[in-house]
From TrEMBL:
Residues 88-267 form the IclR-ED domain. InterPro entries: GAF-like_dom_sf, HTH_MetabolicPath_Reg, Tscrpt_reg_IclR_C, Tscrpt_reg_IclR_N, WH-like_DNA-bd_sf, WH_DNA-bd_sf. SMART domains: HTH_ICLR (SM00346). This is IclR family transcriptional regulator. Residues 25-87 form the HTH iclR-type domain. The keyword Repeat does not apply. Residues 1-20 are annotated as: Disordered.
Amino acid sequence: MRTSNTNRLPTMDVEDKDDADRYRAPALDKGLDILELLAEQKSGLTRAEITKLLGRNASEMYRMLERLVARQYVVRSAGGDRYSLSLKLYALAHRHPPMNRLISEALPLMQRFAADAEQSCHLAVYDRGNLLVIAQVDGPGTWGISVRLGSRVGLIDTSSGRTMLAFQTPEQREHMLAEHTKVKGEVTIDHGALEGACETIRAAGFSQKDSQQIFGVTDLTFPVLTASGQAIAAMTCPFLKRIDEYVAPSLDQVTQMLREIVQGLSMFAEPEVRSGS
């Protein structure tokens, strides 16, 4: 019996190897190898570095990289010497069930926040040049402000947009800005001021700013982060301050509540959303 089992295992291994060889697609394998390699790099790689790390021929790597750039899966740095992943795969993932799982995980947390903070909140993701609101919960009070589900909001003049930009690699931020399409009423801001705003948000870990769309609203935004520190979504509370005799949670208290809610969601984000498992 032991001899029979021992003889059977090599046969299965050979069959598996034959199947793998039979369905090989070398060009596809090269492209996937590049994408998987770049996914682990924060600052991108040169073509020479990619060629060396993958042990491939320089000319075939050149052709493959040019096609990946042309199809917008990979972006070339401004100097033209480094390659990094674009956000196209990220955008494609939004159409996939993991995004639905992000929403299903977020909604109970958002509902708890809205009840405790007595404020509304919404969750937005980057999508083709601006932000898309994928979840929205109203506060329990008589008055409130909400952003309509499915709305597109500005990338550069909103707390959500700037927070998304702040927690990206420089290459990804450059690509997002290159794709940027203005929404109705979006306020123009110069590049230097935007970079300064993003740096401030990164240092603080969140954004707190007066709304540039609605008077009297303070926008609080925290990034939903992967383990690598990149934002896959932004959760925003458009905070309204009560001026009557009712004692509602303060701005500082609401900020802490939102921080705790988003930290819980960020713990979920890495294995479930980024990997697409």
